[in-house]
Amino acid sequence: MEFDKEILRILMEAGTEGLSLQKVARHVFNAFNSFFNPLNYEDVHKYVAQYLLKNSKRMDSLIEKTDMRGYYRLNMDNQQSQQLMLQFREEQKTNDQNEELPKNEDRSLNLFDNEI
Prior knowledge:
Layout: H1 2-14, E1 19-20, H2 21-32, H3 41-54, E2 63-65, E3 71-74, H4 79-98
Antiparallel strand pairs: 1-3, 2-3
């Protein structure tokens, strides 16, 4: 699901300090909520909470709990999380390259000719 990828992207950007469950849920909600596709925040929060809890149970899991209660981060000892970091960096690099704007050229017609 798209929520899963967004959760991992948010945790990757958070770094080693991690983020609280509430902040992760808010980021996911803001990323997918739109005028034409309204979401219920409580449903998103519940999904994010279940996803983080489920994926942080084992010591070798992709996500780990931090020392602070309710905070999560990517487990850097896990090979999958290291691979995700590389994938997200590559995606970001290609997106940055695609966003280069072409040079603006003035192709409008002159209303007044200088040749009189």
